[in-house]
Amino acid sequence: MTVVAPAHLVDRAGVSRAAYLVTTQLGWLFREQETSDIGIDAQIEVVDEADYPAGAPRRGTGRLLAVQIKSGTSRFTKSSELGWWFYCDASHIEYWKNHSLPVALMLFEPESEQIYWQHVNEETIVAAGNSYKVFVSSRNRLSGACRDELGIPARRQTDGGLVITKPTRGSSVRQADYELAGAIDLLVASMGKTLEEATPRDFRFAFAAQLRALYRRAGAPKVDVLSVKTGYEVAKLTAYLEGATHPSRGRVVAIVEALVECAHEKGIKIPGYLMDVRAWERMWRVSDRPGMQKIVKNKARKGASPS
Predict the structure, then answer these.
(1) How many other β-carbons are positioned within 10 Å of the β-carbon of residue 164?
(2) What's the pLDDT tens digit per position in 13-49?
(3) Name one Pfam family in it (predicted).
(4) Rounded to the nearest 5°, which phi and psi values hold at 167?
């Protein structure tokens, strides 16, 4: 008689639930790894999100995430106020860090049938004595709302061997504040306003101006080309570039990397600081949060350099 361990059933439920949510909520492709479990349970492919007619087939992008799925209530015992810590040994961390694809960790909670996720990288891995831990936020519930954020590492995979460098966090912050300070200074001067009179709306326009500057440096590609590369609608991309709509952080990253990719295809060299994803994320946060805008106003007033 075949004996089926309860843990096996829970593990299978977790993989099945992940497959269901990825395909129905994200509209992406889910490919379970049928070989023995050595650290990766599935691969997820990002699918083009452009506005297709109802019922029309959508376009795969070839941008992939490797996924490790852990299931069971025991995964949710080491909690904090905002989520859960997942503990693992050094061999798992080494395998994930050396994987050819970006890796995401997913935790399946059987009672609620919810799945929560986190990217596994140098920023999320924390040493814990002889082992390691990764924090999975309760806000990172696997649903359609996380499409942009979850897909960021996959969208960073570029064609033709292009690698987007990632400077240190400190240099990225300094560069971002310097660039945005210059942009807001020029904007308010053109409007006959002082820095103190700059509004959150002005910061968003300044951020859009930075996006347009990169767009021009990339050879001003057709917006429908960007739509194909990012999966975002032409109208929305146009609104982002014009400053009529403020994009999400995930969309900013996807747009920047699509523009860098366009430049690469045309043989246009883009300065390293314009390919710094952290700097763009910092500029987005400042333009989206009035409390942080005081810092940039002070830097604009002092004319601080990024060095």
Answers:
(1) 18
(2) 889 999 999 999 999 999 998 765 567 899 999 987 6
(3) DUF4365
(4) -65, 180
- Tokens linked to 60: 């795969």
Tell me the residue length of the chain.
307
Backbone φ and ψ for 103, nearest 5 degrees, come out as: -115, 140
% of the chain at pLDDT higher than 90: 26
All structural domains of the chain with their residue ranges: 6-155, 159-302
Would you state the structure tokens that stand for residue 32, as one six-digit string? 């379970």
DSSP alpha helix (H) spans, 218-276: 223-230, 234-242, 249-265
H-run or E-run covering 106: strand 103-109
pLDDT in tens, 249-295: 889 989 998 898 888 778 787 777 778 888 898 899 888 888 888 87
CATH architecture, range 6-155: 3-Layer(aba) Sandwich (3.40)
Residue found by looking up tokens 């767009």 in the block: 215
pTM of the model: 0.54
